[in-house]
Predict the 3D structure of the following.
Amino acid sequence: MKKERRQFIKKAGIGAAAVGAGLATQVAPAFAKSKKFKWKMVTTWPPHFPMLGEGADKLAQWVEEMSDGRLKISVYGGGELVPPLGGFDAVSQGTVQMGHGAAYYWAGKAPAAQFFAAVPFGFNAQSMNAWILSGGGMKLWEEVYAPFNVKPFLAGNTGVQAGGWFNKEINSIADYKGLKMRIPGLGGKVVAKAGGNAVLVAGGEIYTNLDRGVIDATEWVGPYHDKKMGFYKAAKYYYWPGWHEPGTALEMIVGKKAWMSLPKDLQAIVETAAYRSNMWMLSEFEAKNNAALEELVNKHHVQVKQFPKSVLKDLKKLSKQVLDELAAKDPMSKKVYAHFLNFQKNMNAWNKLTEEQYQTFKYL
Amino acid sequence: MKKERRQFIKKAGIGAAAVGAGLATQVAPAFAKSKKFKWKMVTTWPPHFPMLGEGADKLAQWVEEMSDGRLKISVYGGGELVPPLGGFDAVSQGTVQMGHGAAYYWAGKAPAAQFFAAVPFGFNAQSMNAWILSGGGMKLWEEVYAPFNVKPFLAGNTGVQAGGWFNKEINSIADYKGLKMRIPGLGGKVVAKAGGNAVLVAGGEIYTNLDRGVIDATEWVGPYHDKKMGFYKAAKYYYWPGWHEPGTALEMIVGKKAWMSLPKDLQAIVETAAYRSNMWMLSEFEAKNNAALEELVNKHHVQVKQFPKSVLKDLKKLSKQVLDELAAKDPMSKKVYAHFLNFQKNMNAWNKLTEEQYQTFKYL
């Protein structure tokens, strides 16, 4: 404080003689607080991408409002400053202070990261929040990112995603044989185990690939986003549910050095803004997806289909194989997986009496 | 700004001549920011009541951290400053700046408030959040509280509650006839319609009433709280699900004058802290209820039972009657109810493909 006081007096350009003790004590702390931070946040989303990129924009806006401009965060779409999937490295190396995306994008660096985004037949949004925020998940997530000097925060959720757009019907697991589907991550590994051909296609090229028959199927997000992509013009069937992403968590990441440079009040502001983003995003998804789905069905005559239970059962079996293999290869994944499974067991028992029953109210 | 500058100069006790223009411009905003607020928050909960009162404590703590002590909120348990159900009036009249509780406690003043806490066979936590935050619900809630100069914020959710503790089995709706049950609010009205005797008993007296047979049944919250109340020693059956409170929202309320007195940054801090509280509380409930339930079953040999579908069906029919009557009597309730029903219709369609399917994963 004393140093700051001296600096204040120096910067203010007034001699000690002109400054009463009362003035200095009153003003110095306020002045110290006025230190301004300008941060950059890189995201995995196209600039201002609905809901997901918007969530990042809003997060920055809330931080600026709460800090009264003391922390200004410039948000960059994927590719504007670093490539869309270059965000983790950029934050890790301190090139930028923050990132916004989803943990499964960093599977190549930290395979266990995938548990904190989406696991096939894993958690929905509510259980994901409970696991990470109150069930011990956050400690594990921090452990997974610690070697990279990156600090994770929960900052959004898509809710249960769609199963995807298909140009052939899925009546049994055998229908996956030879199916060329755009599906990344663990879901893709499951489709591959089912005999499918899981391919990666950049967002901007999916529609053309689907339309030209280069791929037979694709998953993306849910009705609100899928409608904008125009997939209904290139595929017959819209399958449900998104077993591969039943509640995808989004993340905000902050570089350790940047985090440590913030005073405690700004740390609390950044963390709390992430929570707000988490809640805002899920609520937007839940409130807007159904209207988009109705438009797809009523205006664009999309055929909504559900995966047969037998297919889901087979896919779940294959998902377990994929996760077991992941755990066998990577000790950190093994540790996180065990914790995840235990929490899942509890949530299953709990949901049986609560949320599962709630879902039957509409049929009474 | 100019006025603040003058005030600063005056308060700092230095004459204009001694102050360089550079000093005044640099310091005045920082000084204006250092204005400190001391607020009181009254709650409907016993002091530091697990999860619910804790949520209020944490909310205050987060605001203090984020504002670096510029806004200090002292939290009072129900009865410490005003009676537990006197909070709304105290905030409305400006006696205190803030409150924490649940909107249905104010049904006597504003019947429509009940929609923003819990409706029998109404929303679960996820849909409640979506409705209020992204579906237009908040605008209506603000309208309901506006005549009282009170501003509402979403600040917690219990998730699906328990159906309650019973000393007789519920096999058909006829079993409600003459049943003396502690169940307040809209749920109580439904039980009354079923021929039951819905009574109000203060929290501290429920156990004794149940133990002595003064009442045959009681609802409370969920396993974590019910275990602490010792109900398992006084009742045989623990019924599920809590059809009367499938996702009870908690609120933070702020008096209009107090709210307007805050600078914009502190307003953003208070609002964002409420979001964090909302998410924290639900996650705590979800993460901790099952362990408590397991203890009740395995250690205390509680008999967990589910209401038969036929009973739930009848209760749902009666709930509709109760809500229709509420809407017929009160124009604001009618307006909110119509909006609520429309959102519910959409959520039902959406959940059919998403969360409902998710709840079947565990059986695959």
Chain A has three domains: 1-34, 36-160+248-286, 162-244+316-326.
